[in-house]
Amino acid sequence: MPPSTSYPPAKPPDSPVDDSDTDLDLDLEELDPQTVTGTDQSRRKGLLGQSHQAPEERTHRIALRTLRMGGLRRGARRNGYGELGRSHAAGDEDAQGLLRDSADGGDRRYSDGSAAGEDDAPLLSEHGRRSLSKRRGSSASDRLRRVGLRLPSFMSGTPSNQRNPNEELDKEDDDPSSSRLVAVGSSQSTRFPPNIISNAKYTAWSFLPVTLYNEFSFFFNMYFLLVALSQAIPALRIGYLSTYVAPLAFVLVITLGKEAYDDIERRRRDNEANSEEYTVLQFEEPDRAASARRMRKPRSNPMRRGPKRDLSEANRLSDIQEEEEQIEGDGIQRPPSYVVSEVSKKSRDLRVGDVLKLSKGHRVPSDVVILKCLSNDPAAQRTEEEEDEAVPQEEPLLIDHAPEAAKSGSVARPAVEGSGAAAEGGSNGETFIRTDQLDGETDWKLRLASPLSQNLATEDLVRLRVTGGKPDKKVNEFIGSLELLPSRQDAMSTAAYSQDDDEGVKAAPLSIDNTAWANTVIASHATTLAVIVYTGPQTRSALSTAPSRSKTGLLEYEINSLTKILCFLTLALSIILVALEGFSNTKGNIWYVKIMRFLVLFSTIVPISLRVNLDMGKSVYSWFIQRDPGIPGAVVRTSTIPEDLGRIEYLLSDKTGTLTQNEMEMKKIHVGTVSYANDSMDEVSAYVRQGLHAPSSADSRALVTPSTSLTSAANVGATRTRREIGSRVRDVVLALALCHNVTPTTEENDVGRLVNSYQASSPDEIAIVRWTESVGLRLASRDRKSMLLESTETGHTVVKVRILDIFPFTSEGKRMGIIVQFYDKMQPGVPSLNSGEIWFYQKGADTVMSSIVAANDWLDEETANMAREGLRTLVVGRKRLSAAEYQEFSAKHHEASLAISGREAGMQAVVSRYLEHDLELLGVTGVEDKLQRDVKPSLELLRNAGIKIWMLTGDKVETARCVAVSSKLVARGQYIHTVAKLRRKDAAQENLDFLRSKTDSCLLIDGESLGMYLTHYRTEFVSVAVQLPTVVACRCSPTQKAEVARLIKEYTKKRVCCIGDGGNDVSMIQAADVGVGIVGKEGRQASLAADFSIEQFFHLTKLLVWHGRNSYKRSAKLAQFVIHRGLIIAVCQTMYSIALKFEPEGLYKDWLMVGYATVYTAMPVLSLVLDKDVDENLANLYPELYKELTSGRSLSYRTFFVWVFVSIYQGCLIQGLSQVLTEVDGPRMVAVSYTVLVLNELLMVAIEITTWHWVMVVSILGTFLLFIGSVPFLGGYFDLAFLLTLGFYWRVAAILAMSLIPTYAAKVIQRTMKPPSYRKVQGI
């Protein structure tokens, strides 16, 4: 093909010089596609670094520019000349794509030539175009049209009416429920939800309907509503309407007021968060007139431009001259197109696309993608300045080795070879965030800015566009891309899936490492610029938070069922009374009206005050819990279920941080032939000191590498075996000091002194790095590109590595790896790939590492031994890589990282193929996780209380087994049946059959096997498991934990309590009947989601055995007494109606009715919440007292009907004798009957009290005096003259004695013949 054609942009020059140049430039672009500086510099070398090729190069470049100028000046003028290459680069590729299609693959030279032709395109990324073309298919007709627009005017021309349908199509594709395009710093074409946090349960419109529905869903509230409504019918009205409406209104006002207060408090907290001020960057055009001209053609595409504009040759030459001047300078520098200003916005006013400026301590208000990190730390800035000085030396190394890379067909990772020098602030794009409010972990997590945006001037951020997936609740996953487009208008375009995207000059992948989700906190000193991608209800935090369900206690359901029985008794009694008179003999009244009137009269049988008394009792129990000095820091977040604390039969506990302290300490290390622990760690320190000596004293800058031999004077004369062990120990310590994600930090302690500390996502890693420091190798500094290790003995740097790749730990992979290049000596700049050793280090769980490391005969045995000791084991291995091997791996891995679908699987496949096989096994580490305080006695006490304890953990089988034994969860000598790696259904059935025959054993099951049982044998599995004393489930996901809790609840109908301390325990806690959260090292999320929050596991015993038991017994006694109080007055009414020949007339009307249930009996009855049958010491000494509560004997049908019998007996006696001894109907009878009724209740309370409290005495005596004082005001109901006679008093005394003495005698006899458990222990 001749070097000059009619259409140079579509066909590459074909000369050997250009081909070699092209190989170099293409390779450099693939080496560093994400770094602006690297691309510009590599381009500069390609243009100017080889003078003998310059003339030929210049010829082609002038021709290309001259042709492209006419078509591109129109679109690029609005953003300065620097955009030209960005616009026509895509056109060149489109032309090449057409040629490749038409030639069935085309000649390979075309792709090379295309790269050569794109040398002048700033920020042009081969991988970016390649990934875009993969992601979005293109048609030949589109390419023809677009190439046609590049050609001279007689060849081009696109009707303007073709533009609108495409734009409309683009808008349809931009759907918030699918992937979204976000223009950085600009308004969006799609309306996204506002960034408002709302935890409120109600709105102004829904408050009354929802709360009233919830209230009247309880049967007795609905019953009283019907009774109150019946009083609107004159024929049914008995006494004052307020007598029936007032109690119901009082109950509703109290309940609705509490709900309203809680919701107002939630709204107040939401408003505080929504009003938080944030700094937002605004991008404005300096010239409004120019802005107006630009905005007239916001969506115009270089590929759609018509032939109307023709530029003179002078204009073209001036542009060429401008470009050459910029290239001869510091690369293509665009004049600032926008002026950046800072404005303050409230959180509620933030919108998708806003660029936030965040500093240390700022809560991230929405889900963001990090664009830039600008360091504010002086120490960090000094480090960055040193790195920046080394950058000019880095690029020549890349140039020198680029031909090699091109020959081998491999490329290096951009994060490795790129200079990474920030355009501003001297930062390397790193920031740390705290995620304790998102996933419960308090350790910092490293987040990175994409090099594409990190190296971009701030005013150019508006040319970026973020592509993200649909809103998702997976907090550990994100796949997206970042595109740098020629102009702000192109970035604002919604043409996400059309061929217009090929004009995007540069693209970079985005992952979870480039994001910060809402409610995380910036932890590092760097200033972070981030663009908002998801807001309000679409954030990860909002989507992950299930609305907390309203929990109703078991006691409430039991009382509700008893109320239905009472209502049935009321209806039956009404019908019987009417039937006794006869349905025909109604004397002017209709029989069903009389039934209704009787129902109203007997409405006190269903006591409306029961709900009020129980709610007030719950508040008292919560007050006791929160102010108990034995449970400091306890918080009651759900005050409706304290009684359920006394009914727990299953306790599901997390392990790490709940039963264990989550404080790690390196205890043991095994290196194949010898194991070190405790005092023998001094020997490890000696080996490390020997291994850290430089190989030669001739060069004081020499550093230690893995191949450095042990040649110190201290090692002279040592046996060969000892030298081998020393080398092995040095290697494993070096591996542990390098293979981690730990970052050394400096913090101020309480007294203001600076102290060194470590931050990492795993406490295991911190424990290991602290151990390496204790044996002589300290992690001195670390950033994204390097690590420095220094000797603790001398303080000198002994190891310096360049970080090439990091493979972080994941719950699926259960391992982490790192590829590092060792420096041979201290030197400025970055060494070439051939100048230092490249090693791949990896550590992980033995279950995955056993198949990755080379064959050995000791790994399985040693990891099993450590697990039996309760140690968390990690297997450490390494593998040396040549430069060619690493470059080949890096190319494949980077290619896999650009895939939109299947990205993670593809990247892992590359790692497995090139790295994860035949690793040299270095050693096994054992880290101890200490048990929480008093865990052993607490678990033993709870087990003796009849609670079956299950441990659900994400840890491995052996560690879970060891913690279960060491914590006494499994009794000494108890058989542990292990079910692991279960894949066949027949084997699953066999295990179930075995467990049925051995129900005294402990079941230890892993997550994989548990998943099979939950899927295929749910009922069979739970029916067997609930019979076992203990179940330990390991390798459980949070979903499985919640599923187990729900399964036990559904099958057994028993109360289940779940306790945990991390974000992964929240789903389990919310699924339980009672959720208890521990404020632990993993954060407060579990504590905030729980019903009860405590600070230590052993506090749970007091919460259940003492407070739970008291709450249940008190509420049971209170509920039955309130029922008795309502039932006895209904029996009196029945006796009165019978005496009146079955007429439905009220016995106690108006105030007498209201006063009886409130003023005259309320306080004494309520004081029963202070009663206790045993003291705390006895409750802890005899946890068996708790076990009897689980059967619900304190409030059962048996006890209920005993109280019904007592009520009938006392009611009949009081009313019958009052009528016999005075009169059938009249004020004298009412006076005697009512007085006896009130005194009977006061004395019944006194009889039922087990342990007296001063409040009880005051309430009983106070109520009695109040009644005596109010008698003179009851003249409308009583015969006051009769009250002054002796006849009144002897009648009251006689009736009262006959009512109480038999009742009390029966109670004494019962206690003597069959004493309750608490009476037995009190007598011991």
TrEMBL record:
Domain P-type ATPase N-terminal, residue spans: 188-239
GO cellular component: endosome membrane; plasma membrane; trans-Golgi network
Transmembrane domains' residue ranges: 1151-1170, 1195-1217, 1229-1247, 1254-1274, 1280-1305
GO molecular function, a single term: ATPase-coupled intramembrane lipid transporter activity
Chain positions recorded as Mg(2+) binding sites: D654, T656, D1061, D1065
Catalytic reaction annotation: a 1,2-diacyl-sn-glycero-3-phosphoethanolamine(out) + ATP + H2O = a 1,2-diacyl-sn-glycero-3-phosphoethanolamine(in) + ADP + phosphate + H(+); ATP + H2O + phospholipidSide 1 = ADP + phosphate + phospholipidSide 2
Biased composition (Pro residues): 1-15
Compartments in which it is found: Endosome membrane; Membrane
Cofactor: Mg(2+)
Gene Ontology biological-process annotations: endocytosis; phospholipid translocation; retrograde vesicle-mediated transport, Golgi to endoplasmic reticulum
Amino acid composition bias (Basic and acidic residues), ranges on this chain: 101-111
Compositionally biased residues, Polar residues: 155-164
Active site: D654 (4-aspartylphosphate intermediate)
Binding site for ATP: D654, K655, T656, E765, F809, K843, R872, T953, G954, D955, R1035, K1041, N1064, D1065
Regions of compositional bias (Acidic residues) in chain numbering: 16-32, 167-176
Record's keyword annotation contains Transport: yes
Residues annotated as domain P-type ATPase C-terminal: 1088-1315
Matches recorded under Pfam families: PhoLip_ATPase_C, PhoLip_ATPase_N
Family stated for the protein in its record: Belongs to the cation transport ATPase (P-type) (TC 3.A.3) family. Type IV subfamily.
Protein name, entry field: Phospholipid-transporting ATPase
Organism the protein comes from: Corynascus novoguineensis
Source lineage: Eukaryota, Fungi, Dikarya, Ascomycota, Pezizomycotina
